[in-house]
Design brief:
Rossmann fold; 23% strand; 33 strands; 971 residues; 6 domains; single chain; alpha/beta
Length: 971
């Protein structure tokens, strides 16, 4: 690479500094001894999707942890053990898991029966376990090695009975449960709490899920339930396989009451189980529509963390996550945090010591050091259970959405007087409060071109609200609107079946980037909350069905839907939808009702809906997925430094190709790594700085690679074929053109400066500079002419004639450089002569190296006429034999020097010696010296001197001044 040494040093230092920064901040992959975590759950069989979704979520969390350096430099590795939700298989897998000497913990199982079967072995062998779906209270009871990130069945059973009475208004209550641990315990809890909730238990039906005539038994149960319960509330506590068959039988037998299913049926396995029936395929949700479901987590009312997790999950796996994935992600995050706090020994003597450290670290996770996750704060009580709310969902069109009424526990120690007494529900020692849920949908009608310099964008939109009766919810405040927006009167409304629906049309100017996005992307979204009703009273949930954002839609379908919102001629393209529900605090502004309660802020349920966009362009920027950036950065850095250290190779074209690949890899992955760090830690100023710096690099680095390609593929092959170097002037001209074009692109696209103004301004500067450097311009054009004519080339010996064609009045030297302004000559005295090209173009030039490299020179000697010419010639030939000897720095031996008698005069006979030499090998002055030295030496030894001009001097006597001349006679 033709770079100045200082530039090369600076470039290496910059790359090393960038590498150190990136490796320190985010992407130093773990390389130590692996820490193995086992996943135990169904990855095959009817419930395979539930287990696979959990595996995907865990991999996401572990990949992020490994990208940060793992746990003390040790990577996390996930091992998968399939139990098919079968207790015996789980029991058989457990010794294999505990026997693995590098396995420090297990995430699993899904079924409580599997967790109980394997939990005995985990406790015996001292292996920490975290369940993400097993809700039986027995799982963690009396087992200090078992934890869970989900609520337990006691909380679930209580919520179902209270919900049936307080929200659904039921008086008659029925339960169908399986005889396995999970269903049996739920049935027991609900039977116990039904009388306390003033519910009449109309029937309790149980079945063995393993019996051979299960379908017949479920058909019998469906008939009995339909006769006994009427329009009461029926609760199903069982696994998906039996649940699908029983719900179908209930629908076929015309059951008209409400159905509530336990969390095991709030799964994709349960939804997909109906697809074998034509009615379900023709109309998704035919069998499940309207069924209430205890759903551990709902993304339509999830917070920012849930929205970010969904986007990462969909981006990587092209499918939406379910609640199994959400709780598995939280279990993995809790494990990572606990491992970091445990400070494991990098080289432990036994795995048992590390397992005990991890168990103690998990047990110490409480409300004060809770781990923030997808489903909220994660911490454990004294028996290892997680303190989580129990949400209620409802099936709609084959999806589960947040039910319109939620019951939340009043936190321990919370003053009940701060709640609306009409919303408090007391049952036993527990107090719950009722929260309304409104499903809100937004459809963008038009996005104006965003102005990210001003930080605003224009949006025309439709917005609708759907909720169960009660007070209106449409009085909202747009928190990121530049000016207040008044929705006015609804353009459509409906009040049917107890549901209130209102549709509005609005427009306004909103602030951009109200939420964080990946570097290179921007958020165009609007955020809003109810003007008066706080989160204790009202929650806004996104309407995924109404907005056609259901879980069944793939990433490409979602992107295509988002693309339809933008004009194709726009400079921006959407990459995904953004929606999240989160709590936002606002100042109470001295409101008396809040001051009376000692509160200075009000917490609202804020909904954010929008799209994530990036520039519409063909670019390599951001093309690499986040999980591969660390690896590619290491590859690019090692490859670049290796090539730089090796230096020039015998395969310059291959070297250029590798250089280009490694440099582009570094450029591609460094920008998002630095950019995302700036997004998370630096703020908008640093994001703009990173974008500007890499914008410059994306023009200059390719320009440098193009320049280097011209050198490797054009100049160097031309030099090899011709045997002569390419003129520096031509190299400089082409390089300047490449960088000039890159500079124009940089100014136009990075700094948004119009090229017309730039060219006009540059024209004025060119005129001023031209007048100032017109002499240099003459030299430049003279240099171009010299290179076109090629009257001499680098390496030629030339003489620039002076006033007379005499070497003493001329400049003689070897051409060592012809640049844009001057020609440089190296003389025989090893001095440097710099001659302006304009001067050379006006002089006579003698080129000693053309037409052939071998040039002829001559020396004159004058010998007295008294010496016979034959003898002189003999002496001169002997002298020349010495001069042409190897190492004598004299003429070449072939062709042999010649001696000629040129002329005679009164001074003597003039002898001329003609000899040849290659000026590139021996300078003419050195050869002249050698020939002169040899000739004079042989003449001296022969007693012959050089002739010199002869002159005759005649003496004329002077007159005698003492004699008096005879006077002339006077006539």
């Amino acid at each position: 690479m033709h770079l100045p040494p200082l530039f090369r040093i600076v470039l290496v230092l910059v790359v090393l500094a960038l590498a150190a920064f990136l490796m320190r901040t985010s992407d130093s992959d773990a390389r130590g001894k692996p820490i193995r975590i086992a996943f135990a759950g169904p990855t095959s069989g009817p419930s395979a999707e539930d287990g696979l979704s959990a595996v995907r979520a865990i991999e996401l969390v572990f990949d992020r942890a490994n990208a940060r350096g793992g746990i003390g430099g040790r990577p996390l590795v996930l091992d998968i053990y399939d139990d098919r939700n079968e207790a015996e298989r789980a029991r058989a897998n457990a010794p294999e898991i505990t026997g693995e000497t590098n396995t420090i913990a297990v995430i699993g199982h899904n079924y409580s029966s599997c967790s109980l079967a394997a939990g005995e072995i985990y406790a015996r062998d001292g292996l920490p376990a975290i369940s993400t779906a097993a809700t039986s209270v027995v799982v963690t009871r009396d087992n200090p090695w078992y934890f869970r990130t989900i609520f337990n069945d006691r909380s679930q059973g209580r919520l179902i009975t209270i919900y049936a009475r307080a929200v659904l208004g039921a008086e008659r209550f029925g339960i169908v449960h399986e005889t396995e641990t999970y269903g049996a315990y739920l049935g027991e809890v609900m039977s116990e709490w039904a009388p306390m909730a003033q519910l009449t238990l109309a029937g309790l039906w149980a079945f063995d899920p393993n019996q051979t005539d299960l379908d017949a038994r479920l058909s019998q149960v469906a008939q009995e339930v339909t006769r006994a319960l009427g329009n009461g509330v029926l609760v199903l506590a069982m696994q998906p396989a039996a649940g699908v068959e029983l719900v179908k039988q209930l629908r076929d037998h015309g059951f008209s009451g409400e159905i509530i299913v336990s969390d095991a049926l709030a799964s994709q396995a349960f939804i997909d189980g109906f697809l074998e029936y034509p009615e379900e395929r023709a109309r998704p949700g035919h069998y499940t529509r309207g069924i209430y479901a205890i759903t551990p987590f709902l993304f339509d009312s999830g917070g920012k963390a849930a929205a970010a997790f969904m986007r990462d999950y969909v981006g990587r796996y092209d499918r939406s996550p379910d609640w199994y994935a959400a709780f598995a992600a939280d279990a993995a995050s809790v494990l990572v945090e606990a491992l970091e706090r445990a400070e494991l020994d990098p080289e432990p003597e036994t795995i048992e010591a590390d397992r005990l450290l991890l168990r103690d670290s998990l047990a110490s996770t409480d409300a004060f050091n809770a781990v923030a996750g997808v489903t909220g704060s994660n911490y454990f009580d004294a028996i290892g259970d997680s303190v989580k709310p129990v949400p209620m969902g409802r099936f709609l069109n084959g999806e589960i959405v947040t039910a319109f009424q939620q019951l939340r526990l009043v936190p321990d120690g919370q003053d009940v007087s701060s709640f609306d007494p009409k919303r408090i529900i007391s049952l036993g020692e527990q107090r719950r409060y009722r929260v309304d849920v409104a499903q809100v949908g937004v459809r963008a009608r038009r996005f104006g071109d965003p102005d990210f310099h001003q930080g605003v964008f224009e949006l025309d939109f439709d917005i609708w609200f759907r909720h169960e009766g009660g007070p209106a919810v449409e009085e909202i405040v747009f928190t990121n609107a530049v000016e207040p927006i008044d929705l006015g009167e609804p353009i459509d409304s409906s009040d049917e079946g107890g549901l209130r629906y209102r549709l509005y049309r609005g427009s306004g100017l909103f602030r951009t980037d109200s939420r964080l996005a990946e570097y290179g992307e921007h958020v165009l979204a609007m955020s809003f909350h109810n003007r008066e009703r706080t989160q204790r009273d009202l929650i806004f949930a996104i309407d995924p069905i109404g907005m056609n954002l259901g879980r069944s839609r793939t990433r490409d379908q979602r992107t295509a839907q988002a693309n339809a919102l933008f004009d194709p001629s726009s400079g921006w393209v959407p990459t995904d939808f953004l929606f999240s529900q989160d709590a936002v605090d606002e100042h109470a502004l001295g409101h008396p009702s809040y001051l009376a309660k000692g509160a200075s802020t009000r917490t609202f349920s804020e909904l954010t809906v929008g799209v994530i966009v990036k520039r519409r362009s063909l670019s390599l920027r951001g093309i690499v997925e986040a999980r591969y950036r660390s690896l590619l950065f290491g590859v690019g850095l090692v490859g670049f430094l290796a090539l730089f250290a090796v230096g020039r190779s015998r395969m310059p074209r291959l070297r250029w190709l590798l250089q280009s690949v490694f440099v582009l890899i570094l450029l591609i992955v460094s920008e998002p790594l630095l950019g995302n760090w700036a997004v998370q830690h630096g703020g908008s100023y640093y994001v703009t700085l990173v974008n500007r710096v890499f914008g410059v690099l994306w023009w200059l680095v390719p320009a440098g690679l193009v320049h280097l390609a011209i050198v490797r593929f054009f100049w160097e092959p031309a030099e090899e074929r011709s045997g002569h170097p390419v003129p520096t002037l031509l190299r400089a001209f082409v390089a300047s053109l490449v960088y000039l074009l890159a500079s124009f692109g940089l100014v136009a696209f990075v700094y948004d400066y119009k090229l017309t103004g730039l060219l006009a301004t540059s024209g004025v500067f060119a005129m001023i500079i031209g007048l100032a450097v017109q002499l240099n311009i003459t030299n430049i054009f003279a240099g171009i002419a010299l290179n076109i004519e090629r009257s001499f080339r680098v390496g030629d010996w030339i003489m620039i004639h002076g006033p007379r064609p005499d070497p003493d009045d001329s400049v003689i030297g070897m051409v060592i450089d012809i640049n844009w302004r001057t020609t440089r000559l190296k003389t025989a005295a090893d001095t440097l002569i710099v001659v302006p090209n304009g001067v050379i173009s006006e002089k006579i030039i003698t080129n000693f190296s053309q037409p052939d490299e071998m040039s002829r020179y001559q020396l004159d000697f004058m010998i007295d006429q008294s010496v016979p010419p034959a003898r002189v010639v003999q002496l001169l030939e002997a002298a020349l034999d010495d001069a042409v000897q190897p190492g004598a720095n004299g003429p070449v031996a072939d062709p042999r020097p010649k001696i000629r008698i040129d002329s005679t005069s009164e001074n003597g006979i003039k002898y001329i010696i003609y000899y040849r030499l290659v000026p590139r090998d021996v300078s003419p002055n050195q050869a002249r010296h050698t020939v002169n030295e040899c000739v004079l030496d042989h003449l001296r030894k022969a007693g012959i001197e050089l002739a010199y001009p002869k002159r005759q001097i005649h003496e004329v006597p002077a007159p005698n001044r003492d004699e008096t001349p005879n006077p002339e006679p006077v006539g």
